[in-house]
Amino acid sequence: MYRLIFPSVLLFLVACSDKKQEMSLPEKVSTDVYETLLENEYVKILKVSFAPGQSDHMHDHYPSTFHVFDGGKIRVTLPDGSVNERDIPSGFTGHNEKGVRHQVTNIGDKSINILLIEHKDVGSLLTLDPTDELSPEVVFPDKCKLLFENDMVKVLGGTLSAGESNAMHEHGAYATYFVRGGKLEITLPDGTKKEKNLPDGATGFSKDIVRHRAKNIGDTNIKTIIMQYK
Questions:
Q1: What residues make up the domain containing 89?
Q2: What pLDDT shows up at residue 223?
Q3: Is the dihedral of CA 221, 222, 225, 228 positive or negative?
Q4: Which residues contact 188 (CB under 8 A, 6 or more apart)?
Q5: Which end of the chain is more exposed for a tag (fewer CB within 10 A), N or C?
């Protein structure tokens, strides 16, 4: 069963639409920290990298979902001057339901690396019923782990070893990041096959309902982070 995405997100974005011109975008004001990997009218995928002691400038985020590859200790400063410090562990996945303005400093002694997916205008995207029996984490739980889930999104960590296949499965609108890329053979329900060579750090986005099966036809293991709308 297909459905439209969580309606309150659209209401929030409509309410904020008049403020878009006022946003201070992180990839514009802190190019040494934020790299745009993919952007369209629906989402923006950012690679975020803080060296020890490095700071960004005050900036704004859309509502966002994030996955921490390499964690550490940060200091966050808000526009009113209030400051708080927090430890973010490696492997942590989270979601900010609303946009935020802040400035961040890495106050630890290790580099921090984060995948950040910002949600721009997602109110019209088709999604799947959360109980869909073809969800990847249901069909092949040994190859796809649920990292985070709330009313709006779920985040999956997928692995596919060299020569390995998964089963036919289904996604609603989703974004993908290849932590480790490789060569895939994609099979559609009608039997059509296509091959893709995907480098480390490759990204993708689909606004449609997708059903397919994947086989790793390369000689390296493939690892992905998948953020799917609900």
A1: 2-10+23-119
A2: 98
A3: negative
A4: 211, 212
A5: N
